[in-house]
Amino acid sequence: MSLFVASRAALRAAAPVQRTQARRYATGPETKSGNSTLLYVLGAAGLAGAGSYYFLGTPAAKKAETKVKETAAAVIPSGPAKKALTGGDQGFVSLELKEVEDVNHNTKRFRFALPEADMVSGLEVASAILTKAVPAGAEKPVVRPYTPISDEDDRGHMDLLVKKYPNGPMSTHLHDMKPGDKLDVKGPLPKYPWSANKHSHIALVAGGTGITPMYQLCRAIFNNPDDKTKVTLVVGNVTEEDILLKEELAKLENTYPQRFRAFYVLDNPPPSWQGGKGFVTKELLKTVLPEPKEENIKVFVCGPPGMMNAVSGNKKSPREQGELVGILKELGYTADQVYKF
After folding, report:
1. Is position 328 annotated in a ligand binding site?
2. Considering the entire predicted model, what is its pTM?
3. Considering the domain 93-190, what is its CATH architecture?
4. 7 is in an annotated binding site
5. Residue 183 main-chain phi, psi, to 5 deg
6. CATH topology of 93-190 equal to that of 201-340?
7. 113: how many CB neighbours lie within 10 A of its CB?
8. Is 161 annotated as a binding residue?
9. Of 7, 70, 233, 242, which residue is the least packed, with the fewest Cβ within 10 Å?
10. Is position 27 annotated in a ligand binding site?
11. Is 329 known to sit in a ligand binding site?
12. How are strands ordered across the β-sheet holding 142-146?
């Protein structure tokens, strides 16, 4: 089993069931998550193999412990890491697809190898990449932005989560790729520069794959023990199967109950669904988001055009936010309080 699939399997086993829509911030102490990537790798690759001998202090246990330490060293090399993507005048970099995982009926997770095994992607929070390809039958290259879902400190690889859209040239091209194929990428594309405690409370309103830049922000906040920002997440999808990164979000929700809460809304919920039903509405956002009169808050929005129009209005261009309209303006938020990915 590959490290990519093993880490996902370990996460699925560790993540508790999602809480319902009525959940509020907990009042009990938080637990520290530590280095989750290393934890899952060691759990899958080291501790399971050692078994009870590891805990009994036998020669076999010592050998297993040595193996665990060697695995950790291999996973997290020491010393500063070179950046694969440096921006500026750097052109497109060709990355080889190493692994593909089916997430649901129309979404796949792609792992691309960086040019060198000890490199990091070079992305900062929040930023994205440009992908470029010439799909079959196309006369010109297609260029599309994506926000990677792998950690910025991960070495040797970068992961993309891509939903296939009808008549979507880049998403179709990616879904047709096989391990060994290559994709041209460029970046980072700076979005919203984040620093610890930049805002006291942020709200993330996402639809579909618009969850990816929101998850990037969440990782930065909860991976930093000095960052005490509160986070409220609202995610709209068509069906329960369409909820992306729900295991990763469930882990955050249960690890940081005082500072993170998530609300899910489905257009077509199953009979047993206890979350929100229909679309992301004014009533829901008024109930769960920090009020516009609160100091030092920020609302981030990312999703399909229809949702963006309803909630905040779409961006005018990649570099221009455009006018704030829709639900957030009606609720009293100002343009300075809202950022559109």
Report:
1. no
2. 0.79
3. Beta Barrel (2.40)
4. no
5. -130, 135
6. no
7. 18
8. yes
9. 70
10. no
11. no
12. 142-146, 127-133, 182-190, 93-102, 107-113, 157-163
**What is the fold of 201-340?**
Rossmann fold (3.40.50)
Is 195 annotated among the ligand-binding residues? no
Task: Please indicate if the annotation marks 171 as binding a ligand.
Answer: yes
Closest CA to 203 of 338, 52, 28, 44: 338
pLDDT tens, the chain, 341 aa long:
555 555 555 444 444 444 444 445 655 545 544 443 333 333 333 333 333 333 334 445 444 444 544 444 455 556 689 999 999 999 999 999 999 999 999 999 999 999 999 999 999 999 999 999 998 888 899 999 999 999 999 999 999 999 999 989 999 999 999 999 999 999 999 999 999 999 999 999 999 999 999 999 999 999 999 999 999 999 999 999 999 999 999 999 999 999 999 999 999 999 999 999 999 999 999 999 999 999 999 999 999 999 999 999 999 999 999 999 999 999 999 999 999 99
Please check whether residue 153 is in contact with residue 143, taking contact to mean a CB–CB distance below 8 angstroms. no
> Which residue carries 């295991």 as its tokens?
247
- Cα separation, 280 vs 75, in Å, equals 40
Residue 53 annotated in ligand binding? no
